[in-house]
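Deliverable D4.2, example record:
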Amino acid sequence: KGFRVVTAKDGIEATDMLAEIKPDLMLLDIEMPRMDGFEVARVVRESDTFADLPLIMISSRTGDKHQQRAASLGVNKFLGKPYQEDELLSLLGELLSFDVA
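Output generated by the structure prediction step:
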């Protein structure tokens, strides 16, 4: 779809990369080594530079407590695994204000 995608092997690498890259959006999993997705979301939201960065949490942990915790940390959208590609693209279009069709 023309996205430039940058990946990180864990949460610490993801937050370190923010010193060099200003993404338009971040996809997070709850379960990541060294720093989980909740902690990454907290770090992002506490940053003046990235406080408004759209965040999508994608996780197999879809219980209310996980979704509520993500929302309390400022995660914009939550997708359960497995997810449909069209659903993710729709959320990307919504959060980045473009037509994905």
